[in-house]
Amino acid sequence: MATFLYKLGRLAFRRRHFVALIWVALLTLAGVGAASAPPAGNSSFSIPGTEAQKAFDLLEQRFPGASADGATARVVFKAPSGEKMTDAGNKATVEKTVDELSDGSEVASVADPYTGNAVSKDGTIAYASVKYDVSGMELEESTKDALEDAAQQARDAGLTVEVGGDALQAVPETGATEVIGIAVAAVVLVITFGSLVAAGLPLLTALIGVGIGVSSITALAGALELGSTTSILAMMIGLAVGIDYALFIVSRYRAELAEGREREEAAGRAVGTAGSAVVFAGLTVVIALVGLAVVNIPMLTKMGIAAAGTVAIAVLIALTMIPALLGYAGRRVKPAGAKGRRLGRSRKSEPKPDAPKPDQPAGRPKANLGTRWASFVVRRPLAVLLLGVIGLGAAAVPATSLELGLPDDGSQPTSTTQRRAYDLLSEGFGPGFNGPLMVVVDAKGSDAPKDAFDDVAGEIKGLDGVVAVTPPAPNKGGDTATITVIPDSKPSSVQTEDLVHAIRDAGGDIEAKTGAETLVTGSTAMNIDVSEKLNDALVPYLVLVVGLAFLLLIVVFRSILVPLKAALGFLLSVMAALGAVVAVFQWGWLSGLMGVEETGPVMSMMPIFMVGVVFGLAMDYEVFLVTRMREAYVHGEKPNQAVVTGFKHGARVVTAAAVIMMAVFAGFIGSSESMVKMIGFGLAIAVFFDAFVVRMAIVPAVLALLGKKAWWLPKWLDRALPNVDVEGEGLRTGDERGSGPDEDRELVRA
Fold it and tell me: CA torsion, points 71, 75, 76, 81, in degrees to nearest 10?
């Protein structure tokens, strides 16, 4: 691996014009494809294998032309104080609004409140239901404008009017904080490298990689039914890993220059060593993202694969375009330590870059902060370990109160018309009115379909928590009917979930008696099924992803305990991050600071998506930091000395990478999409816990306690595993190989 990447790095350095041309051409091609692609429609949301999806598919089959996936809108009217919606003037205004809404070319139907029993008991609130032929994301702007204009005219007549439903659904925006995140990354890079040119390389390559990835997603969005959230998440992850991967290679290049190597040789060695770590770190991220397919929710699978593709592009750019740009930069990228000379500090007191002797302290006369911190940890490993574990455990406590759900209009900010419409409907018709359940009765196998429909309706009326049940509405064939059930609790409540299960349980008894199958669907039931499916898939997903990455890390580190420690540390950081998400988005701690206007259940997809992404990113830091330690150990240093050496060379860069990744993720907290906001916060806090607590404190403490046992590998497994040479042993000259004691190298082989 190291030898191949070394040759690739040198080739890219020499053929930099050709390499740069290829990547610019790919960016241009992707950009043209994105610009010429038709606008993406609404991504299809399906949950194969669930009852809600089965009922939805049955509706499309038995009720053709009903536009089951078409957009909907509820125009909610409230009379002025002291008046009622049944007053002549108010009634005339509503009927005029209904007539105007019916004229739209994409409108399938509009239900008049006065003929559809859509006026509240006290007469103060009414609503008109609008059904469209196409989905919310496919509605023309003229149709949305007509809906808003009709509502505004009713407001001008003196009514309070709000519009709910998905007809006014907008593409989520990330806000200005995304730019702030990139600016913070730029500042950190300048501080790390002390050079605008060196700092600009990771930013430039990351932006090119994200540009190719996001443009490709945009170009394929229509054909593959990719939602707008997919490109935002791909941008979030692609920016973070793209900057980090380039950062590690540029940093290693500067270190190689400081060793006195020529620039082409330094580029080759940087790609051969740090590039090997980039490849395996990228593989762990890709495995974690592609592994989301085991959940069997197509939308989540597409999001994972799209983000994984962006990560793969980031890896390829780091391995090829970074050495090419280093060739263009020439002497403008200085060796490591050159900044100190510019600031007036001399390097004369520093020893020559010879390999350290095993009995010599790992820290040089002028030890950096990473060296001092690692030396402190290896002297007091147990205290540091206990403090880190207890701290993360305390942060994880809120996760025990985790409640899952999917957002509806009730989770929107109170400034939106959708949220105000939701509140008006709750006020006039009860909290359960915003989450009606649709019961589909399939009586094709029943001898008396009409009796079966009535039996189901009667059984549901007798259940606890039911406010109203509409009469069965059969299809033209008379073999299938729909029944709308209004709960007495809000859609995201535990009581509503219990009612869904109660209806399904009652349906089993009815099927045994009548032969008619009863299915529960609708957005509320769909959300419940999604949450349960994600909960059921979490353990298999963890086993698959952690298992595959564990095997990969065994190959990288040639150790059993180091990958095991990496996996356990990840579990600590992800649980602590989930605890922080619950505290902010569910309990409301610091919600104002994060721009969270409405607390509620955590997004159902959040835990499993965060587990996948955080695991991949956690392994990034593990690979980058611990490979430096293993490299020192393989080259003859004692275990504790190798830990200190790893921190000496890697702590500053890993710290910079973590700060950059946190800044990029935190930049998406300003998004208008609640899922993007929550994931941005969750990933930022997870990177903080994993990089600064797990990798910087717990990892060196555990390695110090284990000593030589940390690098133990059974001989039979050592012979069976392929030698990927992440440490770059194959690149060392004869003099370099002879710098360490023979007995230590024999110990490593054993």
Answer: 170
Give the pLDDT confidence score for residue 747 in this predicted structure. Answer: 31
Measured in degrees and rounded to the nearest 5, phi and psi for residue 60 equal: -65, -30
- pTM of the complete model: 0.76
Q: Please tell me the predicted confidence (pLDDT) of residue 740.
A: 43
Question: Residue 170's pLDDT band (boundaries 50, 70, 90)?
Answer: low
**Torsion 468-474-479-482 (CA) sign:** negative
In this structure, the number of other CB atoms found within 10 A of the CB of residue 411 comes to 22
687 or 614, greater pLDDT: 687
Residue 342 CB neighbours (<10 A) = 10
pLDDT digits (tens, 9 = 90+) for 637-665: 888 898 998 888 778 888 888 888 888 88
Is 93 within 8 Å of 113 (Cβ atoms)?
A: no
Residue 266 CA to residue 649 CA, distance in Å, equals 16
> How would DSSP label each residue in 585-597?
IIS-TTTTTTT--
pLDDT digits (tens, 9 = 90+) for 311-361: 999 999 999 999 999 999 888 888 876 544 443 444 443 344 444 444 444
Q: Put the strands of the sheet holding 160-165 in their side by side order.
A: 107-111, 125-132, 72-78, 160-165
**687 vs 34: CA distance, rounded Å:** 32
pLDDT band at residue 136, thresholds of 50, 70 and 90?
Answer: low
Q: Return all residues near 611 (Cβ < 8 A) that are at least 6 apart.
A: 288, 538, 541, 542, 545, 574
Contact at 8 Å (CB) between 55 and 112? Answer: no
pLDDT at residue 418 is higher than 80: yes
d(CA 649, CA 20): 30
What is the DSSP code (8-state) at residue 500?
A: H
What percent of the residues of the chain are helix, what percent strand, and what percent coil, each to the nearest 5?
65, 5, 25
User: CA-to-CA distance for 504 and 450, rounded, in angstroms?
Assistant: 19
Closest CA to 675 of 24, 233, 127, 45: 233
Mapped onto helix, strand or coil, the DSSP state of residue 481 is strand
Provide the 10 A C-beta neighbour count for residue 510.
20
Name which of 617, 581, 587 is nearest 694 in CA terms.
Answer: 617
CA distance 320 to 681: 32
CA 623/CA 287 separation, integer angstroms: 15
* Cα–Cα nearest to 630, from 712, 730, 547, 718: 712
The C-alpha atoms of residue 492 and residue 496 are separated, in whole angstroms, by 7
CA distances from 322 to 203, 328, 428, 689 (A): 11, 10, 62, 29
In whole angstroms, what is the distance from residue 552 CA to residue 557 CA? 9
Q: How many other C-beta atoms lie within 10 A of the C-beta of residue 364?
A: 14
Which of the four pLDDT bands, split at 50, 70 and 90, describes residue 92? very high
Q: Which of 227, 219, 225 is nearest to 28 (CA)?
A: 219
Average pLDDT, the chain: 82
**Using CA atoms, how far apart are residues 524 and 519, in angstroms rounded to an integer?**
13
Strand 404-405 and strand 602-603: pairing?
parallel
Helix axes 298-329, 263-290, angle to 10 degrees: 180
Grouping H, G, I as helix, E, B as strand and the rest as coil, residue 73 is: strand
Q: Which two tokens stand for residue 50?
A: 């669930």
Q: Which residue pairs, CB below 8 angstroms and at least 24 apart, start in 455-463? A: 455/510, 455/513, 455/514, 455/516, 456/483, 456/507, 456/510, 456/516, 456/518, 457/483, 459/506, 459/509, 459/510, 460/485, 460/503, 460/506, 463/499, 463/502, 463/503, 463/506
